C-alpha cells in the first residue's frame, strides 16, 4: 500500500487552521452544530459548511440528526488518537519562550477527551489509583483490581460488566499535555462526572 498520498490527504484536511480548530472543539466528545463550530473557528457559517462537508466525507467526522438540528462529532476513537498524537508531536519541540495560552493551560489542567478524563487531574488520579493498588498498569492497558472494583462501586461508579472471564480493563491513553499515561474506557457514562469530582 502506498501510504504517502493517504497521509498527505488527511494531513491537508486537519492542517487547515479553521478545520483544525473545529476538530479540536470536538475533542471532548460532544456533538456541536455547524453554527457553533463556525463560531469556534471564527469563520462564516457558509465556510464552515464547506469545511465540515470535507471532514465528514473523509470519515473524520460523523453527523447525528436531532429533529431539524445536525450535530457533528469525531467519527471514532481512532480520529481522537490521531489528533492527540499530532498535538503531542507538536508540543515536544515547543520553544520555552512560546508559553501556552490561557485556554491551553486550562486544557492542560483538566478536560474531557472524547470519552475519558485527561490533563493533569487525570494523570494525578491515575497515579493515585496505582499507588492505592486500585489499578495495575502494563504496557498497553490498565486492569482494575478487586480493591479497585470495590472502591469505584462504593464511590458510585457503575463499571461495565467484564466480558466472559476477563477482568475490567481500561485502555491507556498518552496525555499530550503531560506525556503521561491516563486511564480511558471502557467505563459507564457516570464515571467521568464522578471521577472529575474526586480528590485523592
Structure commentary:
The chain has 200 residues and is α+β, with helices and mostly antiparallel strands. It has helices at 4-15, 17-25, 34-41, 45-57, 77-92, 102-109, 120-131, 146-155, 189-196, and strands at 61-66, 69-74, 111-113, 116-118, 135-137, 141-144, 169-175, 180-184. It has a four-stranded antiparallel sheet. The protein has a two-stranded antiparallel ribbon with strand order 1-2. Strands 3-4 form a two-stranded antiparallel sheet. The chain starts with a helix and ends with a helix. Mean pLDDT is 77; it is low at 185-200.
Using brief descriptors, characterize the structure shown.
single chain; 200 residues; alpha+beta; two-stranded antiparallel sheet; 8 strands; 48% helix; 18% strand; disordered C terminus
Topology of helices and strands:
Layout: H1 4-15, H2 17-25, H3 34-41, H4 45-57, E1 61-66, E2 69-74, H5 77-92, H6 102-109, E3 111-113, E4 116-118, H7 120-131, E5 135-137, E6 141-144, H8 146-155, E7 169-175, E8 180-184, H9 189-196
Antiparallel strand pairs: 1-2, 3-4, 5-6, 6-7, 7-8
Structure in a nutshell:
With 200 residues, the protein is α+β, with helices and mostly antiparallel strands. It is 48% helix and 18% strand. Residues 185-200 have low confidence and may be disordered.
Q: Pick out the low-confidence regions.
A: 185-200
The total count of strands amounts to 8
Order the strands across the largest sheet as they lie in space: 5-6-7-8
- How much of the polypeptide forms β-strand, as a percent range? 15-25%
Oligomer: single chain
Q: Mean pLDDT, rounded to whole units?
A: 77
Give the distance, in angstroms, between the N- and C-terminal Cα atoms. Answer: 48 Å
What's the number of helices? 9
